[in-house]
Amino acid sequence: MNSIFGDRKTIFILLGPALLLYTLLKMVPVLWSFGLSFFEGNTLRGFDFVGIENFTTFFTDKAALQSLGVSVFFAIVATIGQVALGYGLALLYVFVLRKGSSLVRTIVFFPAILPTVAVALLFKSFVAVGDNQGPVNDIINFFGGESVEVLASTAGTMATAIVMTLWSSMGFYAVLLYAGLLDIPEEIIESARLDGANGLRLVKNIILPLSLPILLSSIIFSLNSTLKVFDSLLALNNGQPGTSTAPLTLYMYRTAFEYAEYGYGSTIALVLTILCLVFTLAIFRSQRQKAEV
Amino acid sequence: MNKLSIVIVDTPLKRFYSHVIPRIALHFVKEDVMNIHSTRSRKWLALGIVVAAALPLAACGGSGDNGGGGGGSSDGGTDPEAFTVMTANENTVIGPTLDALAADQCKAENEALPIEHQKIAQADTVQRITLLASQDALPTHTIAGTALIRPTGDLGAAGLVGDLKAALEEKDAWDNVLPAAASTVEQVYGGFVSLPYQYNIEGIFYNKQIFEELGLEEPQTWDELAEVSQELQDAGYTAMAQAGAAGFPLTRLLGMYIFRNVGPEAMQAVADGDAKLTDPEYVAGAEAIAEYAEKGYFGEGFSTRDPDATSNLFLTGKAGMAYDGTWLLSAINDPERNQIGGENVGFMPFPAVDGGKGSIDQYPANAGAPMIIAAGQFGPKVKDWVACIAENYGQQALQDTGSISGFAVNGEVSDISENTLEIQERISGIDETVLWFEALMDPKSNSLASTNGTLLTTGQMSPEDYMAALQDSIDANR
């Protein structure tokens, strides 16, 4: 067996076709889109080479910059929230609930399997006002307050979107981080306890450093998924009021498919990709610096 | 790659990599660390990226050579294998009515060229049609985007839109198109390139019973409308049920105020660059709507209310008025949805504005979503089909669904509701129509007008800013 896998030609023959197919399916569309970002037009009108004009347009386009701001804000707040809540839950599973945590784990994880659009519609009805008023305003009315049009304001829509995202994804991050915490050797925790480390001190000095890799990966997963948020904000309030909650993905979709500007749409897609890359590298770099210190 | 190698030697991260990343990936990372890269392979990589980046150039180069000009083309078409009709999922009238014609009045045309149906979500129209047209795969008779089929639009400029007027005149069937509908189609699309399967006018539907109870008269001016709205609100009703979530029901009111104030050419002047939305007489429209909304006449939660919920608000007697198009007739004629009874539904035009140049008799009109014939497939058999539709669709649609089209009704129709008859009579008496606020705008400005509508009406954007943002968009996309 060793002699077969030691042979470069055999490896090439075995891996080559699948690798080629993978490369074609993954890389060609990405590079194609990259190429399109230097053009203006669509498949019907034809394409004109415009050099870096799409990129200069992007940085003077108020709507694009607003969407960029929405994406970054949403990604940072949602990531902090879902990873922090997930980590808290994971600690709860491991150190408090212990073996009895399976039922709670399942219940908290459940929203993660629901379709995002269904969750968005659910939350939309929670905060509804008017004829089909939702429970949130019913509670406000019960305590003597006046109904609030939550989705009529940017802050209200964004807050609803973030609560919705946390509700539906914290269970997933809790399970991910729980798996990481289980990997910490019991002996280390025991010896730390014998040395007098308990509660917060144990978490800060022992658990957190040892679970850092999985925590880091969770942050990267979370940032990359929340930067690309699309369906939930679309279904919740269609990026409204105005375009104040429209993320970059929604602006990209509208540009490419509603306004038929494929070139500029590709540019926005490229900016989004670079943004994901920058965030990921920033996390890696901060971790590296920490390790070097 | 050095960054990755440093990450690998960190103790916690090494643990992560060794546990989470599959071994195969780790293998590749290690290879990177070992610096297997050579200058040659980097050159190949760079070349690959350049070639791939240039691919779209070669692949897309052939699509811009479609000749033809604006206003539609009817020459040189070749009959397809079937009369393929693509309509929106949301439209439940065109498909069944054409099937009814295929089985009866247009039987001969159907035998020569059998009808086939395709469906599409209306929101996907621009994307799908652009793609299909670029692949020379348009259905014979298809829904399209408004801006696409204008002479300057992507389909119009490429000569892909069939000239229906020429075809109908050739077949002596032009008389079957109502002049008002023909005029509306030509005004919006720059030529008669869409069959008017619907002919809608817009105005204010009101609840006669509530008006009678409160002793209210049909308002003739904007100020009177505000007074009536206040009375309705005081009596506990939603004064004007509008679907803010859709955006356009709010901008319709804004546009109508402008047409009444500035005159029927108001939006054409903006499109031609002769006037700006930031001119005071245009900003007055935005101010009027913002003020109307601020007084709460649209009711609680209007900015997130969808069109169905809005219609129900009116049809269940909770709202005194609703500005809408005559497409609402299908709901009014449906006893399950209409709980106030057809006899209690009244219709009035959008009121005049004191001192304005527009008239209360100028109704906004539209002919539904555009339905074109692909120019390349406009052969003799397709022309026969189009002529047969023009001759018979009006009667069939009115009889089967109570919907009013832009075709003449040739033949008897029985059991038509009073509401439909009233609208039909009103349409026949209209001398001049106007378009709607966004009709002549590019797709981007059109979308902006709607989406910013909720900001304007919830006080989050001033009327001046709303109009300035829209004018900027129109100028940028001119």
Characterization of the model:
Chain A: It is a multi-pass membrane protein. Chain A: It is found in: Cell membrane. With about 290 residues, chain A is mainly alpha-helical. Helix content of chain A is about 75%, strand content about 5%. Chain A has helices at about 1-5, 10-35, 55-60, 60-95, 100-110, 115-125, 135-140, 155-180, 185-195, 200-210, 210-225, 230-235, 250-260, 260-290; strands at about 40, 45-50. In chain A, strands 1-2 form a two-stranded antiparallel ribbon. Chain B has three domains: about 1-40, no CATH class; about 85-200 and about 365-410, Periplasmic binding protein-like II (D-Maltodextrin-Binding Protein, domain 2); about 200-365 and about 435-475, Periplasmic binding protein-like II (D-Maltodextrin-Binding Protein, domain 2), CATH 3.40.190.10. Chain B is built from 22 helices and ten strands. In chain B, helix 14 packs across helix 16 and helix 14 (about 250-260) crosses helix 21 (about 445-455). Chain B starts with a helix and ends with a helix. At the A-B interface, helix 2, strand 1, strand 2, helix 11 and helix 13 of A face helix 1, helix 2, helix 4, helix 7 and helix 9 of B.
Give the secondary structure arrangement, pairings included.
The complex is a heterodimer of chains A (293) and B (478).
Chain A: H1 2-5, H2 8-36, E1 39-42, E2 46-49, H3 53-58, H4 62-97, H5 102-109, H6 116-126, H7 135-142, H8 154-182, H9 186-194, H10 199-210, H11 212-227, H12 231-237, H13 248-258, H14 262-292
Antiparallel strand pairs in A: 1-2
Helix pairs in contact in A: 2-14, 4-8, 4-11, 4-13, 5-8, 6-8, 6-12, 8-11, 11-14, 13-14
Chain B: H1 2-9, H2 11-20, H3 23-33, H4 39-60, E1 83-88, H5 94-103, H6 107-112, E2 115-120, H7 125-134, E3 141-143, H8 146-149, H9 154-157, H10 164-170, H11 179-189, E4 200-207, H12 208-213, H13 222-234, E5 238-240, H14 248-262, H15 266-272, H16 280-294, H17 307-315, E6 319-325, H18 329-332, E7 345-348, E8 363-366, E9 371-373, H19 380-401, H20 418-428, E10 433-434, H21 443-457, H22 463-476
Parallel strand pairs in B: 1-2, 1-3, 5-6, 8-10
Antiparallel strand pairs in B: 3-9, 4-6, 4-7, 4-8
Helix pairs in contact in B: 5-19, 14-16, 14-21, 16-22, 21-22
